[in-house]
Structures are given as structure tokens and as C-alpha cells.
């Protein structure tokens, strides 16, 4: 066992992965991966989707077992001096005993139970009579919630919490297990920038108490802000371990194995074309808390990319769903090419040339167990039907053409959509709308959870679409993406359009200022900023 | 702490992805590889070995006749299950449709072709009501079709006054044989099976069923009118039930209001044995046919072997569980 190496940050070695390989039928997911994690370090795991990050963390959490190679973990809290010993992690329970906790993107919380009950699920403190000691459970939960700076009562049902707070509950749960290794799989993917800051604060505190953290992210700017070391995975191999201060271009080069000229390759049109979409006074009444959105006015011109920014819960998704006819609205009009669209009629919206790539790719965008061909041709099923019969041959040709155009990495069109990586799945959802001859494509969080390489491909596709006279309306919580790709940025705050910024005016600060505006127009003080960010996510 | 979870490499190997080649005899491998068809073939082989009378032409045609009503019902239920619904009403709707045909032709003296159209229309109407309750009333399919199960049976009893009504002669020939050997119910079963296969694989209605069953929200966001599609799906199920009811009555030469009671469960079993998933998005007409044949071969074979009707029920239950278990294993190993 090697001792402490002084030229790297962090303390003693907590966890070591040596030459681990893992194959699934037809794929070699991991091919000799090495990784070391020290106490008090944030170790970033970086790689494109399909590079093997998920397989590696599933191995550490007991969901998969390595075909070859070793995993070593240091002994218990006192035994850390012994150095790591080889272990076999066969189940989630094994991982738990070893002090390894994993926070996945999909949370493992029971919505109907309270925060305290979730934290201690299956391990509730008992009274002398063997009954659950609710008082002790609440007290211990309250203490854990303080540690993660989460200001909710332990008795709050989890169903009432937004994504950011759910994540804090997951962290509290990991702490209650006495985790010494905390694995976080893209924890920032669904958070607003304010929430990300809070999360970073908590992660830093945990690090300072000696917890080793494996942090997966696709946001390169987060690496320098939070990380100590970075291990880059590519095609199932650990390419290199570098300090977190490595510059972004170098990280991208290591990750994709080639240079990416520009991260946001937007080619802006010289001048936008005629208005394609015109939204006037769009309003949807909500509950007593206020309207879901109110008085939304904007237009999108041919050839344009319009970004729709704002905090999660500001009403962006609700607005685009109303425009697309998925949800109803109470007042206002939606016009395409000067023709008014019927309310609540998806088919009318599609005929008029709208397409929606929803934020929840798996839940709303894809029929996961259906073939790629069926997914790609779903939105033009009626057009491929002649005399009552579906022309399967035409479907196959169309699907093959668009899959080729989008460079979908697949084994064939009969492959189920479930088995593709996130980036390729998103290409399928977009391809579906290309085949439906969409004039205005609405993208809701188009690159969430997608690796850098696939992101750039999607950006290039956006360029192609707008160059051919079509238009894109893009919701994104990834501010650099909004700024990098939009020709104009609309900012929503609490159900209203807080303002519009041209590409030149749009900076992170300008967008955030509008996003945090209260309905009466004035920006709130810094203390309230935090609150509105949290509340925003709760509404969602 | 760490020693608790530390064991030898041998135990590790056991936990690896199961190696199907090492699973054992040819028999179970064939079943695993070919799914329901392998199961049917295996069952036929077993029955042929156990009973000399099983594998002759006449008996096999009997099996076909015995499978026909279940199979036709099950084709209709396949549409519903593929779209992630369930239809418990098909047995009752079959009896109601047959009763309406007999009542219209025999009691009211209407021309036979009008009586048959009326019977089919009643099946479609019952399906439309179930479909409307599911699509527009947002009732769970289980509840809506459970209600229709009761309503359909009740109406059959009301119309018939509780007693069988003679079936018109020309329709009863549906229960006869062609050329003295080929049973018409088997032909109807094959025809309905081909129609079901065509609908599922090649029509807008069929492809929409798979999309809705696979992910209803994604289907809706892709422009499929989910509610209208559900009306069509349950109406088709009602139509197939009506055909099954008429075939059954033709074989019995009378419409009996209590006929086909409990057949909905056989139909669902046939669909599931045939490899469809109750959670929707998968299913084939050929699989459903095989499922119905498995149930019929089992009953026929056990009859030939003089196994008591009571034990036959036990055996049927075991086969249903085994078939779905094997199918689950097969899918898992294919993943």
C-alpha cells in the first residue's frame, strides 16, 4: 500500500480502483480504469456520456461487479491508518457498510414520507419497546438538516420539496449513514446557479470534515470552482489524472480526444427573417398563490435562436407547453405565420409547424422500449399512413436518413431507444421533429445531462436549422449555453417576462438580475435572492 | 468491517451474468430461446408422448376449435394490453352480442345479416362505452371494464329473460365444418388473427397502440390523439368479443346469456403467455394465438389423460405462471 503522497491535495487514501474492467454483451464499458480518492478531496470524474462514469460508480455502489481489477477501501473511521484493503462490493448494503454513499440523478426518496422518515428509512431509531422513536428520529434529522443548511422541518413530506431540497435530503441521508466516500452523479444538472452555490458550500464543508467526494459533472466551470483533482475517462479507459486547475480547453481535449474549436459555435444570421411565432398576452390562472404565467408577449423570427432564461419554476416550461397545445391557457393568443392557433390542440400546433423537445427526455420525449425507427417516425405517423396502412418502408428510409444526418451512434434502427446514451437519445427526439417538418422547434433543456461532444453536435444542428430558415426557442438553465447560443434572450421571473436582452446585452449578471426580479419590477436584496431561488424550484 | 464483504473469487463468479449455454438440457434452452412457440412445441411433444390419441388430425382440429373462442377474444384484448390497458368485459360482451343476434333473428324475425350487424354493433358500442369511461371519464381501465363486465352480462340476461335463445340456422353453420373436416371456427380464428396482426403491425391505429402503451405522454406530445385512440382500441376489443360470442353461440346453436363467463381471464392469460407485457408497449397477434393454443392443448391433453377438471385448473394456473416466468427470464438474458 502506498503512503500519503504530498504533492496532491487531500489526506490519506480512502479508496483505490485498480485496472477495473467490465463488459456487457457487445460493449466493453470499462477497460482498465484507475482512480484514487483521498480524505478531504473533491475528485471530479469527467467524461462524455458512454465513457464509463456510470458503470464505474455503479461498481462502487454495488450495482455492478468488475470482471477484472481490484477495488480497495480503507478500513473504518479509526482504521484509516491501515491503508486500503481489497473489497468485493456485491450489494448496496455492502457499499453502505464500507461507508460509500451514492447520490444518483434520480433520487431514492419516498414522496409520501416525511424528510425524517426518508433519512432514516429502514434504520429508524427504536424505543425500548421496539417502536419507532419519533422524537429521537426528528431530533437527529434536524441536526443533519442543519449540517446541510436545509431550512425545512423534519416533518415536511418529501413530496412538497423541490429538486434542490430533495438533493439536500439525499445528502443528509448519506451523512446519517456515516458515509466517508460520497459519490454525486451530476448533482448540479438540475439546479439553478444560486442553488449550485449552496450545494458547493455544503460539499466544501463535507470535504473539510474529511469526507472524500467523487463528483460527476458536465459543467467544466464547476471543476475549477470545487474540485481538487480530475480523472478523465474516455471510451472506458482512465485517460489521465490532472489537477482541477487545468484549463477547460485541455480538459475538453482529454475528454473527447480531439480539439473542439469552439464550445458554442453559434453562427448568427445577418438579419432575422419574418416573424414565425407571435405570442400575445398569454396568461394561465393558477391557484390562490397567483397565475402560473401572465401577460407573456414575444415573437420569434425565422432564422433566430431565442433563449428563454429564468430560474427553475419561473414558468418557462409551462409557457412553452401552453404554446404547443399540451396545456390550456386562459387568455392571450398564439399565432404562427399570422394564423391563430387553437388552444390545447397539439395536432394543430404540429400542423402549423411547431415541435417540442420536452425537458424530460425519457419520461416525455421517447417511447423507451420502442425501436429507434418507431420513435423517429412517431410525429409523422399520420403522414406515413396511406389508405389506413402505415408505409413501413418509407418509415425505414426516413428514419435511416435522419439518423445518418444526426450521426446517431446506434447498432441499427431496430435498437430500443432505452439502450442509447443520453446524447444519442436527445438526437432521436430532435430527429423526430426534423422528420415532422418543424418550422419552429422548441427545445426545453436540450443538453441537460449530455456530454460536451454531443452538446456541440446539437448546437451545430441548431445552426443548420436556423440557416435553413427555421427557428428555435430554447429554454435552458445552463447560462453559458443560453448566452452562447441565443440571438436574443428572454428572461422570465415568477410567471412574467422580466425583460429581453440582445446577444450583446446578455451577460450572466444581466440575465440573473432580471431572473431575480420580483413582480413589481425591483430586484430584491441578496438575502431574498436565495429564498426566491429555492421557492422557485419548489413550485416546479 | 471490510472483511465482512470479502470472499473468494469463486463466489464472485456465481454472481456474473448467467451463462445461458450452461443452463442445461436442450429442452429448456429451446424454450428460453424461442419463448412462447418453444413452450407450445414442448407441450405438444409431452402430450404426444403421454397420449397416443393426442397427435392425430381430428384431435388437433378439436384443439383448434377449443382454442378459437379464447383466441378471438384474446386478439381483441391484445390491442388493449399493448396500449397498457386491460379489458375484463370481453366475456360478457361476447354473451351480450350473441344474445342480441339470436333475439333479433329468432324473436324479432329480422333478416339474419341485419341481426349479425346488430350484434357486432352492440360489441362496438360496449367497447366505446368502456373506452369513453377510460379516456374521458379518466376511470382506471380495470374499473371501467369491470363495470362493463357486469353491465354486459346483465343486459344479456335482461334481453334473453335468462334462458337460451335458439341461434338462426344460417349463422349456426359458423360452428360447422367445411367439406366435412375443416371446422369453421378455426378459419374464423385464423382470419381474425390475420386482421389483428395487420392492425398491430401495419395500421395507424396499431402503431399508436404501441406508442401509447410504451409512453402515453410521449405519444401525446408527438401529436397522437390519445383519448380518441383509446376509444378505437376498446371498440376494437368489443368488436372482436362480438365475433367470438357469435362463433361460440354458433357452436352451441343457441345464444346463452351465461355463456363465456370467465373467458376474459383466459383471454388475458393467452395474451400474457404470448409474451405481451401488462405494462404495455409490447405484444403480437402470433404470440396471443400461441398463448390460446397452449391453453387449449393443455386442456385437451389433460382430458385425454383423464385428469380431473379440478386438477386441470391447477395445471392451467401453473402453466400461466411458468410461461410468464420463462418469458421474463428470456428477456432478462437478452438484455
From TrEMBL, chain A:
Region (Disordered) location: 516-540
Name this protein carries in UniProt: Sugar ABC transporter ATP-binding protein
Intracellular or extracellular location(s): Cell membrane
Top-level taxon: Bacteria
Record keywords, A-Z: ATP-binding, Cell membrane, Membrane, Nucleotide-binding, Repeat, Translocase, Transport
GO cellular component labels: plasma membrane
Sequence ranges assigned to domain ABC transporter in this UniProt record: 15-260, 277-519
Phylogenetic classification of the source organism: Bacteria, Bacillati, Actinomycetota, Actinomycetes, Kitasatosporales
Main localization (coarse): membrane
UniProtKB/TrEMBL annotation, chain B:
MF terms in GO: transmembrane transporter activity
Keyword presence, Hydrolase: no
Principal subcellular localisation of the protein: membrane
Membrane topology field: Multi-pass membrane protein
The entry's keywords: Cell membrane, Membrane, Transmembrane, Transmembrane helix
Transmembrane segments: 30-51, 63-81, 88-106, 112-134, 141-160, 180-201, 231-250, 310-329
GO cellular component: plasma membrane
InterPro entries: ABC_transp_permease
Subcellular location per the Swiss-Prot or TrEMBL entry: Cell membrane
Name of the protein in its database record: ABC transporter permease
Lineage, opening ranks: Bacteria, Bacillati, Actinomycetota, Actinomycetes, Kitasatosporales
